[in-house]
Amino acid sequence: MANEQQIIKPKIGIYGLTGCAGDQLVIIHTEDEILNLFNSVDIKSFVMASSNPEEGELDVAFVEGSVSTEEELHHLKDIRKRAKILVAMGNCALCGGPQAMYTGDGTFDTRVKQVYGDVDFLTKPLEGAPVDAYVEVDYYVPGCPVDAKQLFAAIARLIHGSSPEPYPHPVCHECKLNENKCLLLDKKFCLGPVTAGGCNSACPNHGLPCVGCWGPNPDGNFKEHFELLQSFGMTKEDIVRRIRNFGGHKILEYIKDL
Amino acid sequence: MRILKMDSKYLKEFLESLRMFGKLYGPIWKRDVLTHDHVENVDDLVLDGEHTLIPVKKLFHPKRFNTMRFNEEGFTPNYSMFEKRVLIGAHPCDIHSLLRLDEVFLTDPADPYYKGLRENTAIIGFSCLPTENSLCRSTGTDIVESGFDLFFVDLEDIYLVWVGSSLGHDMILEKEEFFDENVTHADIQKYIQWREMRNDMFKKSFNFRDMPDIMELSYNSEIWDYFAEKCLSCGSCTMVCPTCNCYTLTDVFDVTNKTEGRRERVWDSCMFVDYSLVAGPHNFRGKRADRLKLWYTHKLKAFGGEYGRPACIGCGRCVDTCPVDINVLTIAEAFTSCEVPAK
Amino acid sequence: MTKKDVIHIEPLARVEGNGGILVQIKNNKVKDVKVRILEGPRLFETLVLGKTPEENLSLVPRICAICNLSHKYASLRALEKALDIEIPEIVDTYRHLMHHGEMIESHSLHLYFLALPDFFGYDNAVAMADELGDIVTKALQLKKFGNKIMRIMGGRGIHGENPVLGGFGKLPDHKTLLSLKWEALELLDFAMATIDILADLEVPDHMERETQFLCCKPPYDGYDYYGDELITSDGEVHPLDSYKEVIQERTVGHSFAKRSSYKGKPFSVGALARVLLLGDRLKGKAKDAYDKLYNERWHRNPIYNNFAQAIEQVFSLEGVIECVDRVLDKKAPELAKPKRNSGTGTGGVEAPRGTLIHHYEIKDGKTTYADYITPTAMFLDDIEAFIWKSGESLLASGNTDNIELQFEIIARAYDPCISCSAHLVHVDYE
Amino acid sequence: MTKTQQIENPYIPEPARIVRHYDLVKDHRFFQVRHVDMKRAMSFTYNPGQFIMLSIPGLGEAPFSISSTPSRPGILEMGIRKVGKLTEALFKKKDNDIIYIRGPYGNGFKIDQMRGKDIIIVAGGLGVIPLRSILYYVLDNRDQFGRLFFLYGAKNPDEILFKTEFFQLKNRVDIECLYTVDVDTSGEWTEAVGVVTRLFEHLPEIDPSRSAAVVCGPPVMYKYVIQELLKLKIPKNQIQMTLERKMECGVGKCGHCVLDHLYTCIDGPVFTYWDTLHFRELI
Ligand SMILES: Cc1cc2nc3c(=O)[nH]c(=O)nc-3n(C[C@H](O)[C@H](O)[C@H](O)COP(=O)(O)OP(=O)(O)OC[C@H]3O[C@@H](n4cnc5c(N)ncnc54)[C@H](O)[C@@H]3O)c2cc1C
Ligand code: SF4
Ligand code: SF4
Ligand code: SF4
To answer: How close, in Å, is residue B64 to chain D by CA atoms?
Structure first.
């Protein structure tokens, strides 16, 4: 205890770009850990929870949300410049979020125009894109929103100057640990095998199919899984449309050849 | 081994009496899934032979738990999961599966967590009738001769009770009045009939005996590629298989600046991509076919160093569970007939 | 700090989302006030086109995490109308339970963690914890309780899939329900103690001006968070279906949120609006709380929104107890099934920060039109108007030392939810 | 508490102190460690070819070969490449810092079979780390073995581990050292250039029945080196190799290192070439 003052607390910034703020909220909502967090790091900027941010050098920046305006892009680049380590947290930051579901289809400009008419905005709107579309990302904490246990385990590693543990397993892993009967056996549209796990199989635990909100599981057998779902009477377009709801930029690479 | 007889009407009271030997565990329904859990009311026990989704291994090799805590001073093991337990309703295949897991976990140096849980748990086996996918007759695990403290065979109005240990004997002594040493000729006849009736109930079987050779001969078969293309790598087969024992360890720091935290252990699966991944990165089993080969080698050919026995105990859970029909039946069938299953 | 032409508060802290306030001053007079919404557009109404109702239900909570269940609830109400799904009464009660959870979570987060530090002069609630540790600890417990209900009824803390068309995936068991009741009973004391703390606080009056209020009118004569009619402070009652005539929307360049007015003038929604319009329907402890706190300045002063939230906390804790009592020994109902796969429906609920309307047109099981009107979009004009008024009186009195903070406090009192407002768009179909 | 202390738990790591460390080459570091408990340090015995599990609390555990020889007790030496979380954290440690170890694990080389024979050690890259143990063991017990050939190849001169040490060995008469690099990037390399199998050309005549070989290197290397050894007619069970697999427990419980039906951690990491003919996955 004597050398408590000597502990150098890492300087942390927690930022939100465009999204639902769910990942920041997970931090705020984790009542058991939030006081520990404020005690063990030096929070320089966390606008959602605290006034008077100091925007200087950071050890770790956590960025939530997709890049959706020019202004956000500048902000992100500035954060990257100031932060030794940048962590993308949540589906919007990792994949682009639901707002990126039409990526590559070229409909964004028309949709904006349809919606806002010819308004001149303060900053140019951009189609939602993941953080790593613009800057280098050191670590990813997936989720929609992130899982508190996983996020705090990652934060704790970063506090100690080391790297978070990846969890490269499908939703099915925890689904079985939670002793759920596989929904695929009842021919239900479950995206578990092709979806990144870590959510503690929240949906199958309630007898509901995984909607894929954590984005693609890189080891997923997309081809076979699509065939299986088709054998349940679902059309290919239907499957692709659904998996793109949360797949953003990242899903395209896995389904391009299907 | 002593065999006794008990009138069925005493069952409930006898099971209740076992509470003095530990907390009761057994198959009960929870959220529409049959699971091994703490039994508050013995009426909740499901003793008719239905399989739990996750096998009994979870009581001895917990799905997820903290093995130790660490701090500046080092590591302190966590044994808080140890308690006296009585597991009621283990099927013959469950007991066989524990005997297989013993070979892994109790071989020197023994896994202290498994050992502690095993030593503190009495096993009260119950006979069962085959389910749709039971294969234990093929694997020779439909009956059990050891590995229990008591074993109950349900002959409707009576139970024949095998006493398998001195603890089992103590349990009987507590309720001596329920048991009858006098097993009659008629009882024996009834038992034999029951065995025959049970044997006739198996709907499925597979060529378990020849599989070690067939597996060896088929190592390079393109049939593996057929299954590999189908496998979703969901890992379900490994989670539900009672003889899968793999796990991973992860250190988790507490949210503090001090060196404090826990070493967590979670079931792992050889079907997952990072199972054999080492630094480099070099992946010894990046291909799905290699992952499947490993699993079926373990189940149908041999496992665990000296023991060299196939690990499958014929519970049929992989048949129940795999969403794309990869299981010991389809694998055995494909490699025996050298044909992939028809679509 | 005396002469400053532009007051630029950015980012606006302790609110959800990315926004700012720009105030222009000339000759000691306010020239312009803009609440700038910098959060990018997400075009949610365009995202759900061509999707099934089930997909809509998993997408809309992502509009906003804090009130994710309100979004799901509003969509459920709209879609169940569109598809003619009649939910059993017990499902309605469970939905109430779920919604109370969200109110408790959202109000306690805003009141204790985002707003209260202003009253006591701290940057954030953790800093406040050193001196007011008891309140912070209890407040955390209250928030945790709200989250727990959301987790149980929603399926996880945020964006759970459990509420589905016609019912729920899984319902809580007897033991869980009872534990919710006991915990609500226990927390009620703290919620009432909060009322006493607030009763002693002095509320500044520099922004006071008359305005209008709007909220959903419950279908019976109790206090509630939903309705198929809208009630306004001019005494009018409007069918929910005609929401487009009641709430007039427009787009502005300085924000990706649309703006709304009622009869050409700004209006407020949220806890304050509800308590002002429906407060006489409160019963039990919530009524005691109302009697203790209410005064006629509430009609002119948005800071009292925090007080209204405190009253609603009490109301919702009592609501939890009532819901549990109603469902406790009842059997879980079957999922109610759709009777058709085309139709139109408007769903109105009161999200923590105010009236939330979802509207759908479904054709052959796919969405052909969607419209979402969120509370933050509704009150942005009013925030600007109150800041304008505050600026004028502060400049006139020369009391400008912490003028930024005063402006921020006004904006914060509304508990604006910028994520919600920024996706808010109007789709023009040809 | 006394009850729990009686439970034998092979997973509990013991504290050890980093005594000395230096960089071998870029991202490869040499560590000398000693059990904090001196009695334990002096009584700790092992076989060449065995490994330990090294823990850093919070970062996890991983297997590392022991690179020192049991003929020089009291200290453990390791050569470690920085590849991930644990190794990065280890590279941040300073002398006197505490790490945790348990072991020794694995079977180690079959030294009894090797006694009296000529020894051929073939190392590629990082594979030299476990072989350094047997190398010094043979040198420390020189009279128990026949001739000693040490063949070591690396990608380029900058990747030769223990360079000073190994070049000094060249002065000794009781060992024949043959070193090679795939490419000479330095321009100052005085030894052979080419893959490690090329060194076999420089071996004198040997009597295969009185020779034993030990091999360790990257997975691709084994096939070619074994071809050469078989050309020399060395019996298949006299060719030993040490393998790397993922490991979580080190004592045959976690399953990850399984090969066919063997566990690398208890049945290996040393296997003979004869073993590998039975077990398809071995190399
Ligand atoms: C018997 C034995 C002896 C050994 N001896 C030595 C030795 O003497 N010296 C030595 O340096 N090493 C040795 N190793 C290897 C050593 O154990 C590993 O280098 C060590 O585990 C790395 O740990 P780490 O935590 O630093 O790496 P990790 O952070 O665990 O990173 C490496 C691991 O991460 C994963 N990984 C790596 N790349 C990727 C990727 N691209 N995507 C996803 N995951 C990835 C893999 O699972 C891999 O195991 C030995 C291994 C064995 C089995
Ligand atoms: S229900 Fe879904 S998540 Fe669970 S095992 Fe089946 S496919 Fe996987
Ligand atoms: S074999 Fe079946 S159950 Fe096992 S991982 Fe593959 S798809 Fe899943
Ligand atoms: S391989 Fe299949 S049948 Fe055999 S024990 Fe495992 S799950 Fe049961």
So the answer is: 13
Residues A123 and A217 in one domain: no
| D55 contacts B75? CB cut-off 8 A | yes
Residue C13 is nearest to which of A51, A148, A207, comparing CB atoms? Answer: A51
Task: Name the residue among B315, B341, B318 with its Cα closest to residue B328.
Answer: B318
Q: How far is A185 from chain D (nearest CA, A)?
A: 29
- Quick one: which of B330, B312, B336 has its CA closest to B217? B336
Contact A156 B234 (CB under 8 A): no
Contact B255 A155 (CB under 8 A): yes
Question: D12 pLDDT exceeds 60?
Answer: yes
Residues A19, A89 within the same domain: yes
The secondary structure of D85-139 as a DSSP string is: HHHHHHHT--TT-EEEEEEEES----HHHHTTSEEEEEEEGGGHHHHHHHHHHHH
Q: Give kind and range of the element (H or E) at residue C393.
A: helix C375-397
The pLDDT of residue A104 is above 90? no
A55 part of contact set with chain D, CB < 8 Å: no
Q: What is the CATH number of domain D111-282?
A: 3.40.50.80
Q: Give the least confident one: B91-105, C132-146, C390-404, D120-134.
A: C390-404
Q: Quote the ligand 2 centre to A182 CA distance (angstroms).
A: 5
**A204 Cα: distance to centroid of ligand 2 (angstroms):** 7
Q: CA–CA distance from C94 to each of A104, B171, C98, C100 (Å)?
A: 41, 47, 6, 10
Instruction: Look at A133-137, B208-212, C363-367, D186-190 and tell me which has the smallest mean pLDDT.
Output: D186-190
Distance from CA of C274 to the nearest CA of A (A): 25
As a whole-number percent, the residues of chain D with pLDDT over 90 amount to: 39
- Residue D66: exposed, middle, or buried by beta-carbon count in 10 A (0-12, 13-18, 19+)? buried
Beta-carbon separation of A179 and B232 below 8 A: no
Q: What pTM, to 2 d.p., does this model score?
A: 0.90
Residue D85 touches chain A, beta carbons under 8 Å = yes
The model's pLDDT over D31-61, given as tens digits with 9 standing for 90+, comes to 999 999 999 998 899 999 999 999 999 999 9
Does the residue A166 lie in any domain? no
Average pLDDT on C19-29 reads 80
* ipTM of the prediction: 0.89
CATH of span D4-105 = 2.40.30.10
* Among the listed residues C163, A178, C167, the one whose alpha carbon sits nearest the alpha carbon of residue B30: A178
**What is the distance in angstroms between the Cα of D116 and the nearest Cα belonging to chain B?**
30
How far is residue D92's CA from residue D109's CA, in Å, rounded to a whole number?
A: 32
Averaged pLDDT score across all residues of chain B: 91
Residues whose beta carbon lies within 6 Å of some atom of ligand 3: B 231-237, 271, 321-324, 326
Residue C335: phi and psi, rounded to 5, are -70, 130
D58/A162 CB distance under 8 A: yes
Same domain, A146 and A196: no
Domain span at residue A201?
A: 171-255
Per-residue pLDDT tens digits for B238-286: 999 999 999 999 999 999 999 999 999 999 999 998 887 776 667 777 7
**pLDDT tier at C37, thresholds 50, 70, 90:** confident
The answer as to whether A46 is a domain residue is yes
Q: What is the pLDDT of residues D117-154, one digit of tens each?
A: 899 999 998 899 999 999 999 989 989 988 999 999 99
Mutate to test the pocket of ligand 1, among D83, D91, D245, D266 (most ligand atoms within 8 A of CB): D83
Specify whether A154 is located in the same domain as A248. Answer: no
Q: How far is the CA of B310 from the centre of ligand 3 (A)?
A: 19
Do D and C count as touching (3 or more CB pairs closer than 8 A)? no
Q: Could you tell me if C208 and C267 are in contact, meaning their C-beta atoms sit under 8 angstroms apart?
A: no
Is C198 a residue whose pLDDT tops 80?
Answer: yes
Give A8-34 pLDDT, tens digit per residue.
899 999 999 988 889 998 998 887 788
* Residues C246, C268: Cα–Cα separation, whole Å: 13
Q: Which residue of A has its CA nearest to C62?
A: A20
Measured between alpha carbons, how far is A180 from A176 in angstroms, rounded to an integer?
A: 6
Is C20 inside a domain boundary? no
